[in-house]
Specification:
Layout: H1 10-15, E1 20-25, H2 33-42, E2 45-48, H3 54-57, H4 67-78, E3 82-90, H5 103-120, E4 127-132, H6 149-154, H7 158-169, E5 174-179, H8 187-205, E6 212-215, E7 218-220, H9 229-240, E8 244-253, H10 261-282, E9 285-290, H11 300-303, H12 325-335
Parallel strand pairs: 1-2, 1-9, 2-3, 3-4, 4-5, 5-6, 6-8, 7-8, 8-9
Helix pairs in contact: 5-7, 8-9, 10-12
Bound molecules: ligand 9MR.
Length: 341
């Protein structure tokens, strides 16, 4: 069965500009027929929300369990969807049994996991988030690197190591460095953007095979500005370095918005539109993905509950899988013809 881009879908709008559109996905989503149908109708790429993470595969480090990850790979291949692997090395996804392991044991296990996983799915992945969230300005290192188990065990070259290993085992996959908070307006975000440019320059100079920068894009409505000159300038520099961009985890928290649903939905939609217009204007974007498709599955009710207790409405579909104003905003942004300057 082939489910290519459909008329009046986000994937067909994206395809007009040579982009993929998609969502994060868990195997549990596939138990819902309406949600599965929406995924097949709207998406040309899917991302594993957690089932390809190291701690998910290696709940018991000696006994990796790829059953759920395999399920996502089959779903994608059965339905001709591109698959974005998330994520090989992330400091928050270390199996608990390995968190306090000695450096050499940790290095061995981390490399073994990366090699086994990339090899298992080689040729079937569109792309991999090889390293996730490497920067943390608050940790105060000159190079901006977050202090993690990876940085401690391998040293600052761990990013190069991960990308070289992945590239040699799956030369066709687009290798992505994925980061959060590059899109915000705070002084810390500007510092992170500068540190990211320096990191990318450094890695490029040594030949690290990073092809693409993943910008997570967990936005907050009423906080994300309509325009953002520093972000524009950053994206131009990324493009000048020859790197593509993926918007990897987009959603719009509405915790600062009024409770009224109509107002909220309008503000959220406007936030999506302005943000996508900016990024699509400035970057060489391969794919735009949201972190879930329908409001009833968002992670944000746990992470950032609204003060009034009303459920968040951060995505493009409501819990009954009806299109929201944000759907139309994203569709219009994806379909807009842009002349690169
Ligand atoms: O949404 C994901 C949630 O289901 C997982 O429990 C959690 C821990 O693995 O990760 C969430 O996804 C995160 C992503 O992997 C990295 N960027 C932030 C996302 C939201 O926390």
């Amino acid at each position: 069965m082939h489910h290519g881009p459909r008329k009046s879908s986000l994937s067909s709008a994206a395809a007009q500009n040579g982009l993929l559109f998609g969502t994060a996905l868990c195997t549990s989503h596939l138990l819902s027929q309406p949600l599965t149908r929406a995924i097949l109708r709207e998406c040309s790429i899917v991302t594993s929300e957690y089932e390809m993470k190291w701690d998910a595969i290696c709940q018991v480090p000696e006994l990796p369990d790829y059953a759920s990850a395999d399920g996502l790979v089959s779903f994608a291949s059965d339905n001709s969807l591109a698959l974005h692997g998330h994520t090989l090395w992330w400091h928050e996804a270390i199996p608990s049994a390995l968190r306090n392991a000695a450096d050499n044991r940790f290095r061995e296990a981390a490399l073994e996991h990366l090699r086994a996983t990339v090899t298992r799915y080689a040729g079937q992945m569109h792309s991999w988030d090889v390293v996730n969230e490497p920067l943390e300005p608050a940790h105060g290192r000159g190079n901006g690197l977050r202090e993690t188990r990876f940085a401690a065990a391998f040293g600052p070259d761990y990013i190069e190591t991960a990308f070289r290993e992945a590239a040699s085992l799956d030369p066709r996959a687009v290798l992505v460095l994925n980061e959060m908070g590059l899109e915000y307006t705070s002084p810390a975000a500007e510092q992170k953007r500068r540190q990211m440019l320096a990191l990318l320059e450094r890695e490029k100079a040594r030949g690290t095979p990073i092809a693409c920068l993943g910008i997570q894009s967990h936005l907050t409505a009423l906080e994300q500005p309509r325009d953002h000159q520093e972000l524009r300038a950053f994206l131009r520099e990324v493009r000048a370095m020859g790197l593509s961009v993926m918007i990897t985890e987009m959603d719009v928290s509405d915790h600062l918005c009024p409770r009224d649903r109509k107002q909220r939905d309008t503000i959220v939609a406007e936030t999506y539109r302005a943000y996508l217009d900016l990024v699509l204007d400035e970057a060489e974007v391969l794919a735009v993905s949201t972190w879930g498709l329908s409001d009833d599955r968002t992670w944000l009710n746990g992470f950032r509950p609204r003060p009034d207790g009303a459920p968040q409405r951060p995505l493009l579909f409501d819990g009954a899988i009806r299109r929201k104003p944000a759907w139309h905003a994203v569709k219009d942004a994806l379909a807009t013809n842009r002349t690169v300057t």
